[in-house]
Amino acid sequence: MAGSDENRGYITDNLDRALSERWIKDYYMPVVRSSNGRVCSEEALARWVDPERGMLSPAEFIPALEESKTIYKLDLYIVEAVLRKMKTQAGSGLYVVPISVNLSRTDFDSCDIVEEVKKRVDDSGIPREKLIIEVTESALGNDPEYMKVQIEKFQELGFAVWMDDFGSGYSSLDVLREMYFDHIKFDIKFMQHFEKEKSRIMLTELVRMAMALEIKTVAEGVETREQAEFLREIGCNKMQGYYFCKPIPLEEILDRYKKGIQIGFENPAESDYYDVIGRINLYDMSLLAADDGNDASFQKYFDTFPVVAYEVDKEGYRVSRCNKAYRKFTKRFFKQARIDERFEFADLTEGSGFVYSDAVRRTAETGNRSFFDAALPGGSMMRAMVRRIAVNPVTGVAACVLIVMDIFQAPEDRALDYKQVASALSSDYLYLFYINLKTDQFVEYSHSAEDDSLSVQRSGEDFFTASERDIHRIIYEEDRERMLKVFTRENVLKTIDEQNAFMFGYRMIIDGEPVYVNMKAVRMGTDMLLIGVNNVDAQMKYQREYDRMQQERLAFARIKALVGEFICVYIVDPETGHYKEITASEEYGNMDVRHTGEDFFADCRDYCNKLIYPGDADLFKAMFTKEKMLEEIDRAGQFTMIYRLMIKGLPQYVELKASVISEDEGPRIIVGVNYYS
């Protein structure tokens, strides 16, 4: 104990010297994205290499510094080292990924750690989103409300915040209910007890829960290929551990790149694309069968449909992720398939014998979900669904997910197992129609949001005659004539024979409102027709919003070309006060202001004290109200104000102009600020 006390005294007495003489080194442990095997972020770690005592363990110096409440000096030192590392790495021509730093609970008590971190990052010129803040569950301490405020301050400033060691305490779920974290990092004990079935089930359910909460997941302590494969399969977004790489200094990272042995940094422009692929839980359709007892439930838990995520380009295909059921499927029917043992990349070129390559390619190109049957080697048939989930914005490569729903022998005599189909469909599926083309008899299935299943809604005779009656009853009146013209038996079958599918977009009346839907019809065998109706209302509205924003940006680009550079331009809803920034200069973008919000006029007045020259603040608050602005626009066509804005610490005269434009959603106020001369 005396030796331990002596070490603690030595550490606290020599911290300042260790920092100034750089005895403390910054090391980096990569975090690997599950969906592409690339380094998507890193964790910064401190290593104390003492000239007298050699390597000091973090287990020694970190508790000693926390106890003395001086660890904030070390943590800010690591922040500065991380920022230097990013600049050096960028100068070497390498992609720069976000890096996380660990903050201690005492950091928040010893100084204004949020302001200290913000100042160092902003002074460096590194974007705030490149620095990640990690806090442990235990760091929340006995005052979680205080820590919640501090975490939200970081997030409002643009820093991502991760919870480290998730699952190590009893309050993990309570914390997630009260606070938002961008990522949760699973406690290393899950990997240490990986051989236990219960541990794997807990991880699977925690990942599923995180997906529902829109929180990304990281597993640390990954040491084996088996662990990495399992985490990819259940949809854990990122992994970290000695299986990939131990913590190393920047010098070794650069050296490994020169030697060609580095894992490789992810292109940040592709991060969102790989996020989408990584969010898929390849066990999401499990537990369809009822339990036969406690022991059997463990055996059945990981029995599921073969599911695979492909990346498709002009050259061919590769497997980005797949589950064990898919590996068994390919081993049985496609013995020539090659799946890389580490990252599961498979070369599925046109000559590889994969019978569903055409269906995957069509879906990759069109983005439309497909059902299809295909012959397998040995006389069996497969029934599958494939859908596109993302497109890489850099390479144009499309990511698709394929689900093998059935393997059978007699396609003409076998109907779809709708329980399996329902499990494979997303929650926006509205209806399925299964039509016998010989008899024109049909069955209509509707989607249940409660249990994600399909239930029989009705059955009947003469499908297309019944559909004509439905068109007059439930189709939005502006789309009825067009649908009556194209949705005939002859036209549907002719289109399918020529193009493999019939697709049609229209609006249905649901709860009294028009909702955009998309219909797709495909043949199932020779004499069966499957028609699906998908809810695409959200996508259509998003596309309209995106198109409108593009038009706005184009309009403002033209205005800028005529009248010069704007400091900032906002578009404001006069009814609700909701606003968003359309464009901003670099100086304005670096100011501590919101770029979107719910009350434009209140937020602007709140910023008076820190952004507007004190001598003009009272006048600005008095004049800058929605009522005065709209009254002046109604009278003169435009609202104008001249005042002084504090830019880089100096008062600069600016001119604010506002006018109203008409849009499909109603009137909008355009507010622009420019230098006044």
Structure description:
This protein is α+β, with helices and mostly antiparallel strands. It folds into 4 domains: 277 residues, TIM Barrel (Alpha-Beta Barrel), CATH 3.20.20; 132 residues, Beta-Lactamase (2-Layer Sandwich); 110 residues, 2-Layer Sandwich (Beta-Lactamase); 136 residues, Beta-Lactamase (2-Layer Sandwich), CATH 3.30.450. It is 39% helix and 28% strand. An 8-stranded mixed β-barrel has the order 1-2-4-5-6-7-8-9, surrounded by 5 helices. A 6-stranded antiparallel beta sheet has the order 17-16-15-20-19-18, sandwiched between helices. It has a 6-stranded antiparallel beta sheet with strand order 23-22-21-26-25-24. Helix 7 links the parallel strand 6 and strand 7. Helix 1 crosses helix 2 and helix 3 runs parallel beside helix 5. The longest helix is centred in the C-terminal third of the chain and has 27 residues. The protein is flat, with a radius of gyration of 30 Å.
